[in-house]
UniProtKB/TrEMBL annotation:
Protein name per UniProt: DUF2280 domain-containing protein
Domain of life: Bacteria
InterPro entries: DUF2280
Pfam families, alphabetized: DUF2280
């Protein structure tokens, strides 16, 4: 196991801080830098794992800073945005249609409709109207007369 250049160590540390798996990080290092690293070697740069317990302070700080920024800022994550999710679903629908996979296409279309209609959020649209679509009217009646109160009660109970 050869010593890794600092740039690769930082890359591994930051990727792991962003919750990438060790196998994904090892593959990314191979693709980005042309350097073969094992998943076990990558795991040494994650201070939350036992293998990373001896990680130097420099890389621990990089890990903690990157993780903190990552957790605060979801705007850099594409699928956190509805437009990106809908675009990916649109592409998947096209591929499913080309391959003749109609059940998958129908499932993806349903998911896209739910996504577009806020089915996956906790936002609710409440629309209230009064009688025949008019505004809601609030009636407040205060009376101290028991006979008057009985008339109002009867009126409310028998419209």
């Amino acid at each position: 196991m050869a010593a890794l250049p600092d740039a690769i160590k930082v890359y591994i540390t930051q990727s792991l801080a962003c919750f990438d798996t060790i196998s994904r990080v090892a593959k990314a290092v191979r693709e980005e830098f042309g350097v073969e690293v094992s998943p076990q070697q990558c795991e040494r740069y994650d201070p939350t794992k036992r293998a990373g317990s001896t990680l130097s302070q420099k890389y621990r700080e990089i890990f903690e800073r990157t993780r903190e920024e990552f957790l605060k800022d979801t705007s850099r994550i594409g699928v956190a945005h509805r437009a990106v999710r809908l675009r990916k679903l649109d592409r998947a629908v096209g591929i499913a249609e080309q391959r003749g996979n109609i059940p998958l296409m129908a499932q993806l279309l349903e998911q896209a409709a739910k996504e577009a209609g806020d089915a996956f959020t906790n936002r609710h649209r409440l629309e209230h109207t009064g009688k025949e679509g008019g505004p809601i009217t609030a009636i407040s009646t205060v009376t101290n007369d028991p006979q008057e109160a009985a008339k109002i009660y009867a009126k409310l109970m028998n419209p």
